Amino acid sequence: MRKKTSMLMLSVLSLFAPALAFAADTAAPTIDTGDTAWVLISTALVMLMTPGLAFFYAGMVRRKNVLGTMMHSFFILCLISIQWVIWGYTLSFGTDVSGVIGGLEFFGLNGVGGEAKGTIPHLIFMMYQGMFAIITVALITGAVAERVKFSALVIFTLVWATVIYDPLCHWVWGGGWLMSMGALDFAGGTVVHISSGISALVFALVIGKRKGYPKESIMPHSIGLTLLGTALLWFGWFGFNSGSALGANGIAALAFVTTNTAAAAAALGWVFFEWMHRGKPTVLGAASGAVAGLVAITPGAGFVEPVSAIIIGAIAGVGCYLAVSYLKPALGYDDSLDVFGIHGVGGTWGAIATGLFASIGAKGAFFGNPKQVLIQAEAVLATAALAGVGTFIIIKVLDAVIGIRVSAEDEVMGLDLSQHGENGYNL
C-alpha cells in the first residue's frame, strides 16, 4: 500500500515538474559574493586610473604646469562622481528611449540600491560604470594641457559628459541602437577611447597651439612621473577590462591575460620601431607604447585569444608611434600629450581589430563573420561624429561666452600660478 501511495505522489509531482522548472528559470537574479567582491575591487582599480592619468600627463608637461595638469584629472574625478549619481547614470542606463538615451527613472539614484543587477548589487554596477565616465573626460584634458582656462574646463566637463558621454554609453552598453546593431565593445574602445580621442583633436584644433609650438622645444619635465603614471594605469586597467565581465569568471580571466599581453606587445612594438627609426629606445616611448596597447585591446579584451592580443598590441604600438611622429606634424595640430595619436588612433584600430579577431562569445571576420567588421566601422563613425560635432559646438559656445584659453601672460607664467596660485616645486 505504501509503495502504491509513493508511486501516486511521484506521478502527481511529475505533473508539476515543468512549472517548477519554469519558476526556477524565471526566478529573480541573486547576488553572488565572489562576483560582487571582484567588481568592488575592479571599481577601485578603475578609480585609481584617474590619479594614474594625472601622473602620466603631469610628467610630460613643463614644470610650471605640473599642478594645473594634475588638477584637471583630480577635479574631474570629484565633479563627474556627483554628475553620475544625479543624472549621468540614468541617462546612460535608464530605460531605452528610441535607442538614443536612457529614461529618468534612476534620477538621483532613485530605485538603485542593493538589489541584484545580474549577480552583483545594482549600486556597484552603477559605481563601476561611473568610473568609466570619469576617466573618459579626464583623457581629453591632455590635448589642451598648458593653455586651457580651468573655469572653461569645468563647464566643458559637465556639458560633455551629459550630452556626449552619457548618450554614447547608452548607445553601446545601455540598450541603445549600436548595442541592438551588434557592435562589440567589451570595455570602452568606442565609448571611452575613440570619443575622448576625437574630442581631444577637435579641442586642440579650436584652442590653437601653445605659445612657441612647434618652433620652440617643449620637453617633458619628469619622465619618472610619467612612468609612474603608466604603471598605475596598467595596474588599474585590469579592473577596467577584466571587471567588464561583471563577474569572477573565465571571461574575466581571459580579459586579464589579453590586457597584459597586448600592453607588453605594444610597448615592445613602439620601442623596437623607435629604436630602428631614431637610433635610441626611449622610456617615454615604452610608456606610450604600453598605453597604446591597453587602449587597443580594450574593445576586444573578452572576445579575442591571447595570441590575437599580441598582434593587436604590436600593431597598435607601431601605428600609434607613426601617428604621433608623422600624422601630427603633417596636419599641424598641437595635441599637447598625444591624446588623439594614442587614444583616437589606438581605439579605432582596437574597434576594427575586434571585428577581425573576435572568436569568443562573438565571431569576427577571421572566424567566419566578415559582417562584424562593417558593424564595427559603423560604430567608429557614429562615435566620431557624435564626439567631433558635439565637442566643436560645446567649445565654440564656451569660447564665445567665457573664453577657453588663458591669456598669453598667464600661459608664459604657467597654469600652476595663473590658475591655482601654487607652485608644483618650491626649490
Could you characterize what this model shows?
The chain has 427 residues and is mostly helical. Helices cover 70% and strands 2% of the residues. The protein has 15 helices and 4 strands. The protein has a two-stranded antiparallel ribbon. A hairpin with a 3-residue loop joins β1 and β2 (101-102). α5 (150-173) packs antiparallel against α13 and α9 (250-278) packs across α11. The longest helix is centred in the C-terminal third of the chain and has 31 residues, at 371-401. The chain is globular, with a radius of gyration of 24 Å.
Instruction: State the distance separating the first and last CA atoms.
Output: 98 Å
The percentage helix is 55-70%
Output the strand order for the largest sheet. 1-2
Which ranges are low-confidence, i.e. pLDDT below 50, for 5 or more consecutive residues?
A: 1-25
Tally the beta strands.
4
Shape: globular
Main sheet, how many strands, which sense, barrel?
A: 2 strands, antiparallel
Find the structural class using helix and strand composition: mainly alpha
Strand percentage lies at: under 5%
Output mean pLDDT: 94
Order of helices and strands: HHHEEEEHHHHHHHHHHHH
- Helices, by number, come to 15
**Rg of Cα set:** 24 Å
